[in-house]
Amino acid sequence: MVFMHSYCESNSSISRTWVDEGISPCFYFTLVPTILLTVAIFLGTLHCIFYQKYGTAMEPKFIPRSCLYAFQQITSAVLLIQFLGGVIWRAASGGELPGYVVLYGCFSAAAWAWAIALLRVERRRALLMDRTRGHSAALLLFWALAFSAENLAFISWYSPHWWWGLDNNQEQVQFALWLMRYVGTGLLFFIGLRAPGLPQKPYMLLINEDERDVEQSGQSLLGGTDPNQSTWQGFRKKVALLVPYMWPRGSILLQLLVIFCLGLLGVERAINVFVPIYYKNIVNELTDGSSWHTLATTVCIYVLLKFLQGGGAGSSGFVSNMRSFLWIRVQQFTNRVVQVRLFAHLHSLSLRWHLGRKTGDVLRSIDRGTSSINSLLSYIVFSIFPTIADIVISIIYFITYFNAWFGLIVFVCMTLYLTLTIIITEWRTKYRREMNQQDNNAKSKAVDSLLNFETVKYYNAENYEVSRFEDAILKYQESEWKTQASLAFLNQTQNLIIGSGLLAGSLLCAYFVTEGKFKVGDFVLFGTYIIQLYTPLNWFGTYYRMIQNSFIDMESMFKLFEEEEEVKDEVNAGSLLYKQGKVEFENVYFSYTNGKEILRDVSFTVLPGQTVALVGQSGSGKSTIIRLLFRFYNVQGGCIRIDGQDISKVKQTSLRAHIGVVPQDTVLFNDTIRDNIRYGRITATDQEVEEAALAADIHDKIMAFPEGYDTQVGERGLKLSGGEKQRVAIARTILKAPQIILLDEATSALDTQTERNIQASLAKVCANRTTIVVAHRLSTIIGADQILVVSEGRIAERGRHEELLHKGGLYADMWMKQQQAQDSDSSSDTEAKDRKSEKLQPPSTSSGHHSH
Question: Which of 90, 185, 487, 831 registers the highest number of CB atoms within 10 A of its CB?
Answer without folding.
Answer: 185
